[in-house]
Amino acid sequence: MTALQAIPFWVQVLTSLLLVASSLLALTGALGILCLKDFFQRMHPPALASTLGTWCVALASIIYFSALKSGPVAHAWLIPILLAITVPVTTLLLARTGLFRKRMAGEDVPPEVSSRRREGESAGS
């Protein structure tokens, strides 16, 4: 009996559906990059799509290998958990870099938070 025959059909279907969902999320993120006009608008779709897509792939992996080994295999959750921590931080750093570059180019952007505090402190004194 081969490994594919040892896995129930419903597990194969569920795993396939999760992998297709993941690829559709990746496609959505790519379309978001192509269709949106501004750098700041383009940051959100791929971050969201990659996070959700990774969760789908991890769940598909857990279901498939748990069925293959006839026991729970949950170490694949480590990848989406680490991505859920690092993707927002990376997105924030990219946004701050984009704002900095726009400020240096002299474009109209919101003022820095620290400069607002200084203005508020000097006005209140």
Tell me, what's the shape?
Answer: elongated
Count of separate DSSP helical elements:
5
- Kindly estimate the percentage of residues that lie in beta strands according to DSSP: under 5%
- Main pleated sheet: none
The percent of residues in helical segments reads over 70%
Distance separating the two termini: 81 Å
Give the helices and strands as they follow along the chain: HHHHH
Count of β-strands: 0
**Residue-averaged pLDDT:** 84
Computed structural class: mainly alpha
User: Ranges with pLDDT <50 over ≥5 residues?
Assistant: none
Domain unit count: 1
Roughly how many Å is the radius of gyration?
22 Å
Note down, in words, how this protein is organized.
This protein has one domain. The protein has five helices and no strands. The chain has helices at residues 3-6, 9-35, 39-69, 78-104, 113-124.
Short note summarizing the structure:
The protein is an all-alpha fold and 125 residues long.
What is the strand and helix layout of this fold?
Layout: H1 3-6, H2 9-35, H3 39-69, H4 78-104, H5 113-124
Offer a few descriptive terms:
mainly alpha
